Amino acid sequence: MKEFNKLSERQRNMLRYIEKYTADNGFPPTIRQIGENTGINSTSVVNYNLNKLVQAGYLTRSQHVSRGLRLTGPVPGGERKKGSGRCRSCTCTRYRYHLRQQARSCARRLQL
């Protein structure tokens, strides 16, 4: 894995955004969303930098799947905290639990 401080500023910002978005939403952002939130107008430039991050070992990609980005580990200096992701159907921070237990209701929703 390439050292984090040897990545370009643009690539570091992309990693931080992907980590934050995934933690907040439970799924990764689109290429267009990454560009909009990191100040890149061209989706091909975003794609180029994502491929560089894959080569550096920070991401894995599923080429034929929309939002097919996965971080390979925590981003140095990022905001990831254990259990900081969110469920899609509510505001709880246990989205991984929901993915495994899709038939169950969210405990926080039941308390409302």
Task: Describe this protein's structure.
The chain has 112 residues and is mainly alpha-helical. The chain contains 5 helices and 2 strands, in the order αααββαα. A hairpin with a 7-residue loop joins strand 1 and strand 2 (69-71). Helix 1 (9-25) packs across helix 2 (31-38), helix 1 packs across helix 3 (43-56) and helix 2 crosses helix 3. The longest helix has 17 residues, at 9-25. The N and C termini lie far apart (45 Å). Residues 80-95 and 97-112 have low confidence and may be disordered.
**What distance separates the N and C termini?**
45 Å
Q: What is the approximate shape? A: globular
Q: For the largest beta sheet, what order do the strands appear in spatially?
A: 1-2
Mean pLDDT: 77
The main sheet comes to: 2 strands, antiparallel
Q: What structural class do the secondary elements suggest?
A: mainly alpha
Number of helices: 5
- Beta percentage is 5-15%
Work out the number of β strands: 2
